[in-house]
Amino acid sequence: MKLLVILPRFPYPTEKGDKLRAFNQLKILSRHHSIYLCAISHQKVDELQLSAVKPFCREIRVIRQGWLAVAWNLTRALFNGMPLQAGYYYSGRAHRTIRQIIRKVQPDHLYCQLLRTAAYVMEENIPKTIDFQDVFSKGIERRIPLAGFFMKPLLKLEYKRLLKFESQIFDNFDNKTIISKPDRDFIPHPGRDQILIVPNGVDHEYFRPEQREQTHELIFTGNMGYPPNINCAEYLAKKVLPIIHKTAPGVRMMLAGASPHGRVRALASESVTVTGWVDDLRACYASAAIFLAPMQIGTGLQNKLLEAMSMHLPCVTSSLCNFALNATPGKEILIGDTPEAVAEHVLKLLHDEDFRYRIAKAGYDFVQRNYSWEGATRGLTQILGS
Fold first, then answer.
1. CA-based angle 326:112:54, to the nearest 5?
2. DSSP readout, 297-361?
3. DSSP label at residue 8
4. How many Cα neighbours within 13 Å face the side chain of 159?
5. b/e per residue 92-117 (b: at least 16 CB within 10 A)
6. Residue 385 pLDDT
7. Cα-based distances in Å from 140 to 4, 73, 195, 258
8. Are 139 and 229 in contact (CB under 8 A)?
């Protein structure tokens, strides 16, 4: 079957969650379908990036949108009622190009990632599937209380637009997928139970336990320009680490990930390392003793937790994060919803080696059983047909 996949970003490198999901889904889907990939990109896609994805695709088309075009897209979205999350990626030129690709390829099915690409195919009378991935409206709603004076009205407007747009998308697509049941329950449509849950997975062969010299006791990873990760990095450095230092003053923490925001870079100190882009996150995971991800805002299943658990690190997270992950608290993962609770878990893990091993081993076994890309993508393969 000819499957046209439309992505809001080129899926390599996989430093962002949507790109990681797309890359691994392409790898699995290419075993069953002829993949024609169309990706929007705001940066130049080089030959190295293309070569990573070419083995999975019959054809690849990258639609470049420069920053002037993005500025125009956002300005237009402000006045036409489209959510900025969709307007940022939408242009008339890209829409015309995608129409031409559809007419040329004549795909049997359209697969769109995120609501960011939905507007390009709303009028197409071809079987189509939308991957909500997570619920943008809920993510924005959680950011509103933390927003500054000028940002709060914009986020409230975006929230209302997203609620409406998510419902419209639901009615327009034949199939809908999402990353977890808790996220599905947030979709603003009475038929939300029709949405197929397609979780993320983790490449267990790539993210596997390894021995390295420990350089930091604690680690948090992610795209450090993403607001929920910025918020968590500040939460850890400003609220959690000072409590830990009262008992264990030598504890060091690594904040590892691409595109660190100025607020994240400002956290760097003798006890906090901000790495910026790293070529291989496995080295960062392996050089730490404990993984922390007590996210305060955001939605979806956190890939960072799957990776850390697959590398045999004990993990401390929040109820918000574990809502989608569904690991057993106190056995496979530790839950801390206050700075004091997170710090208490960290100190126990640091001071009790047997306890640290038991949590790490149980977490490792949990992701081995429940989160592989092959298993995660099986349901998607079935609804797309053959």
1. 100
2. S--S--HHHHHHHHTT--EEE-HHHHHHH---BTTTBEE-SSHHHHHHHHHHHHH-HHHHHHHHH
3. S
4. 16
5. eebeebbeebbeebebbbbbbbbbbb
6. 79
7. 29, 20, 21, 22
8. no
Residue with tokens 């000072």: 242
Distance CA 59, CA 38 (A): 9
Q: How far apart are CA 127 and CA 112, in angstroms?
A: 11
CB 15 within 8 A of CB 257: yes
Report residue 104's pLDDT band, with 50, 70 and 90 as the boundaries.
very high
Inter-CA distances, 313 with 91, 213, 223, 285, 298, Å: 43, 14, 20, 8, 23
In terms of Cα–Cα distance, which of 25, 50, 30, 27 is closest to 39? 50
Question: What's the pLDDT at 351?
Answer: 97
DSSP-assigned states of every residue in 252-284: -EEEE-SS--HHHHTT-SSSEEEEE--S-HHHH
Backbone angles phi, psi at 285, to 5 degrees: -55, -45
* pLDDT at residue 44 tops 60: yes
Task: Give the number of other CB atoms < 10 A from CB of residue 357.
Answer: 13
Taking only the tens place, the pLDDT of each residue in 312-356 is 999 999 999 999 999 999 999 999 999 999 999 999 999 999 999
What distance in Å separates the CA atoms of residue 311 and residue 338, rounded to the nearest whole number?
A: 26
Q: Which domains does the chain have, with CATH numbers?
A: 2-201+373-384 (3.40.50.2000), 216-370 (3.40.50.2000)
CA 269 and chain centroid, separation? 28
C-beta of residue 62 within 8 angstroms of C-beta of residue 39: yes
pLDDT category of residue 299 using cuts at 50, 70 and 90: confident
Tokens matching residue 304: 């960072």
